Amino acid sequence: MTPRILIALAWAALLGGCAVGPTHPALQDQPLSPLIPVREFVANVEGTGQYRVSPDGAWLAWKGVSGLKPAVWVKTLASGETRAIPLPAQSFVWSGDSRFLLLTVDRTGDEDTHVFAVDMARSDAQPVDLTPFKGTRSRIQRRVENSADVVVTSNERDKKVFDLLRIDPATGARTLLARNPGNVMSWSVDRDGRLRARSVQDGEAGYLQVPEGGDWRTTLRWQKGESWWIADFVPGTHTAWAVSGRGRDKQALVRIDLETGAEQVFHEEAEVDVEQVLMSRRTHAPLAAYSTPGYPRARYFDAALAARLGPLSGGAPAAVHVTSMATDGQTMTVSVGTDRGWKYYLLRDAAAPPELLGESSTAGLASALAATRPIAYTARDGLQIHGYLTLPAGAQARALPMVLLVHGGPWARDLWTYQGSNRSVQQFLANRGYAVLQVNYRGSTGYGRAFMEKAVGEFAGKMHDDLVDGVRWAVAEGLADPARVAIYGASYGGYSALVGATMTPETFACAVDAVGMSDLSRLIENAPAYWSLGLPWWRRYVGDPADPAQRKVLDAKSPINHVSNVRGPLLIMHGVNDPRVKFDQSERMVAALRRAGKQVEFVSFQDDGHGNQKWTNNLAMYRHAEDFLARCLGGRSSGFDYYQLGAWAF
């Protein structure tokens, strides 16, 4: 062994046991669950996900790791042979003929996204970049059935909008299907690769156009705030299955006439939107619709499918989703999610039992994780707010230190299932001894258009009131210690953390901000080019900095202008390649805080952007967060993780 390795091992042995016990009175002498090392949350080599079966049922692909680096694994189901494709894929699909695996890759977090193809007919085939355009964003629109071709959107020609391309992965040949004239928000392509429609923006409203005689004809319109999307086209007709909020508050599954705009409601929920739909590959009809009023809910329209999937939940709340299906309609991959992780299954036919394929990184730690339950409370203006509460396992639910964990977007939502970055952070924080409150504040998706539109003009206003009211609810319930509440979030959640620290400092003992915006005017003025068609939405909900009167309002809602109010410490973290919330949003905020003599810790992440992809950066983020919160709130910290030594090599 070299002296350097011996020294590193000595430091690992010395520091590896430096865990910090809880200091908050509510956590002392409590039978807390075992302390899970940070590495299990961010670099668990056993964790897998995104299983996809090929259309012919012969291949299986999934995300995992090779060594300690992300990879996509491929398995031949007949022989069991596997191989790793060493790419940090965001997503992937099989080509319609099952020959190619098509991957979307962003290597450095700057959203310079490329589409790669791997020829599975050749055992030595290497990934080929089908969109070798520098500084562009290319993504898979859909595969073409019974063909190797893939339809891709790309802003290579004009960074503000996306053209539509059809690419042959065997040759790399690209065919332009449609050039974006500057106002097309999205393209609709059927399973055969034919361009069937386009959605055009008209101010804050929009309309659908269909191709006709070499031109485009407008067939239906929708108003400001309405949204809809096509799930599948009905063959041989001018109708489609869609999830639509046109003319209604909650999005419903409908069959829509694309010529007249007439809709026939097929399924709807009273409390929430229909969020996802599973379509049959053989009949083009809906098989299931999914929503999340609190716990996940699935409505099956196929009795045989319901009989196969129903037992996978084990009779308890769970999100059971078909993630891919072979052409035969029988072979499929299924994910089963709870509040503690995901398990993945292969179903070959109705007579065969499900085969467990793998688990998410923390599913194997489920016994040490905490339960999450839906909650609801009334905001100060009478609006009902929904969310989720996770209490640390083993601790009495009384006056606990608490973290208010705020989701990003803000046009998104938290879910009960272990899903997305907040779910990993949520269980990580609960394991450290904190009650974790997640609030679907007004403006969150899933609760209908009226609920979302109550957020218009309410950045740092009623949207933030909803968060503070959630803290007050937890305190009134006796769950949270009012003197030991932190606010933590990423993106809009990071902005909320900064608002909490600067505008309601009496509520929060400290704040953790990841990739959050501190200056709203600069955020909108420096938005990435591809946000161009989405900026009217931002101007409606947030404001227009080009208007002097509105700019004053934006400045008043920007945390960077209120640093003198800060009382508690802040932890600010940001990826240097972030194209959305630019790195200088954090740099300038930190400089302003330091000029004002405030306590702030600043962490930057190289080769990452708006959210970390690299496990080494996530390891650093979690370690900084647990030490920071332990000092502020009195929870536990695992101390130095020996993976931090290995991180230096990556």
Please explain how this structure is put together.
The protein is α+β, with helices and mostly antiparallel strands and 650 residues long. Helix content is 20%, strand content 33%. The strands form 8 sheets. The chain has an 8-stranded mixed sheet with strand order 28-29-31-30-32-33-34-35, sandwiched between helices. Strands 1-2-3-4 form a 4-stranded antiparallel sheet, with no helix packed on it. A 4-stranded antiparallel sheet has the order 5-6-7-8, with no helix packed on it. The radius of gyration is 25 Å and the shape is globular. It starts with a helix and ends with a helix.
What features would you highlight for this structure?
single chain, alpha+beta, 4-stranded antiparallel beta sheet, 13 helices, 20% helix, globular
Low-confidence region ranges: 1-16
Q: Major sheet, described briefly? A: 8 strands, mixed
**Fraction of helical residues:** 10-25%
Our measurement of the CA-to-CA distance between the termini, rounded to an integer number of angstroms, reads 20 Å
The best one-word shape is globular
Number of strands: 35
Give me the number of helical elements: 13
Mean pLDDT: 93
Cα radius of gyration in angstroms: 25 Å
Indicate the proportion of strand residues.
25-35%
* Strand adjacency order, main sheet: 28-29-31-30-32-33-34-35
Based on secondary structure, the structural category is alpha+beta
Brief characterization of the structure:
It is built from 13 helices and 35 strands. With 650 residues, it is α+β, with helices and mostly antiparallel strands.
